[in-house]
């Protein structure tokens, strides 16, 4: 049996989300967006190279990650100038300046989560062969490389259309978007018909870009507290933000339920600087007048819901109420 028809050890076409892109306008669009970025490239889910081939012509260092061992081997033979890693995209270091991928649709959310959690300070150095095994050197997949830290700046992803819209905040903000907003910008660039993939998936795709802000709207040291505040607002009860935030206590704001750590921030929360004039942690619900003033200052109506807020409004609310 030829390698073209062999089933991967990691699963068949369906399990691996192998819907290969052949929609020329989308390939051109992704390439155009990549041209607007700098530095080394990391492609997740390279498959048969629909994007890898044109990316390899940009003259930038390119690492292509593909879990299917047959496809990875074939791509490495076809494109000797590309560093092909037969690896799990959920475990490789995200250490190139620009991440690109027509990603398997079932992995969209974990890939996005990882990108947002690991979007640390940019690094100019490209991953070295010492750090990660390459297909050419014959290395096999190894353990999680995240310990090294990640430093991507731009991500251009082809994901399900609805996910792309949601992440870009079309039709209302989401918890994930609000959590990421002070550090990342999302944009939607176009819709890809399902017929643009082979085999055809059940839904259309969408091109989503994520840019790590050069000037974050909040310092990294506030990320934990900010995230706890946003989570509390999204999950709190009430008919509008005035009511919801009035019921959110300082204990919730302080991040007792938060899980993620800001890029480069200390693990130990006791080392975070206290805001001047901050109320003691664990204090009870907020004064309604204080909440209303903060909402008014941020241009938010008392009946507005968390999904209605823009990034700058979340930041302003957090700064006023924290
Ligand atoms: C939607 S296809 C895209 C292929 C190619 N980039 C294209 O546009 O035609 C996704 C690719 O990701 C690969 N893949 C699936 N799970 C993976 C994982 N965990 N890590 C890396 N690649 C994976 C699949 O084998 C498949 O080749």
Automatic annotation (TrEMBL):
One of its GO terms (molecular function) is RNA binding. S-adenosyl-L-methionine binds at residues 19, 21, 45, 66, 88, 102. PROSITE patterns: RRNA_A_DIMETH, SAM_RNA_A_N6_MT. This is Ribosomal RNA adenine methylase transferase N-terminal domain-containing protein. Keywords: Methyltransferase, RNA-binding, S-adenosyl-L-methionine, Transferase. Pfam families: RrnaAD. Belongs to the class I-like SAM-binding methyltransferase superfamily. rRNA adenine N(6)-methyltransferase family. It comes from the Bacteria. Residues 116-148, 248-287 are annotated as: Disordered. Residues 26-214 form the Ribosomal RNA adenine methylase transferase N-terminal domain. InterPro entries: KsgA/Erm (IPR001737), rRNA_Ade_Mease_Trfase_CS (IPR020596), rRNA_Ade_methylase_Trfase_N (IPR020598), SAM-dependent_MTases_sf (IPR029063). SMART domains: rADc. Residues 137-148 have a biased composition (Basic and acidic residues). It comes from Sediminivirga luteola. Residues 275-287 have a biased composition (Low complexity).
């Amino acid at each position: 049996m030829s390698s073209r028809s062999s089933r991967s050890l990691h699963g068949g076409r369906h399990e691996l989300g192998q819907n290969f892109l052949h929609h020329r306008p989308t390939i051109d669009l992704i390439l155009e967006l990549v041209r607007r970025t700098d530095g080394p490239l990391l492609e997740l889910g390279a498959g048969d190279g629909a994007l890898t081939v044109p990316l390899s012509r940009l003259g930038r260092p390119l690492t292509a990650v593909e879990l299917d061992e047959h496809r990875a081997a074939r791509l490495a033979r076809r494109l000797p100038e590309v560093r092909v890693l037969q690896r799990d995209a959920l475990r490789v270091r995200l250490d190139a300046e620009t991440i690109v991928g027509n990603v398997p649709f079932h992995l969209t959310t974990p890939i996005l989560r990882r990108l947002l959690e690991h979007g640390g300070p940019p690094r100019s150095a490209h991953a070295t062969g010492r750090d990660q095994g390459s297909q050419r050197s014959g290395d096999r997949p190894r353990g999680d490389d995240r310990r090294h830290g990640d430093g991507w700046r731009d991500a251009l992803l082809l994901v399900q259309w609805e996910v792309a819209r949601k992440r870009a905040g079309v039709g209302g903000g989401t918890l994930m978007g609000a959590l990421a907003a002070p550090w990342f910008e999302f944009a939607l660039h176009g819709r890809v018909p399902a017929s643009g993939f082979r085999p055809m998936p059940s839904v259309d795709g969408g091109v989503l870009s994520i840019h790590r802000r050069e000037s974050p709207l909040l310092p990294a040291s506030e990320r934990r507290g900010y995230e706890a505040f946003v989570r509390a607002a999204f999950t709190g009860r009430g008919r509008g933000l005035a009511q919801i935030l009035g019921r959110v206590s300082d204990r919730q704001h302080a991040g007792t339920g938060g899980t993620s750590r800001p890029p480069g921030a200390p693990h130990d929360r006791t080392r975070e600087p206290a805001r001047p004039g901050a109320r003691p942690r664990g204090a009870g619900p907020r004064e309604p007048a204080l909440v209303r003033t903060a909402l008014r200052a941020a241009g938010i109506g008392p009946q507005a819901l968390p999904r209605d807020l823009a990034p700058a409004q979340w930041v302003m609310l957090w700064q006023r109420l924290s």
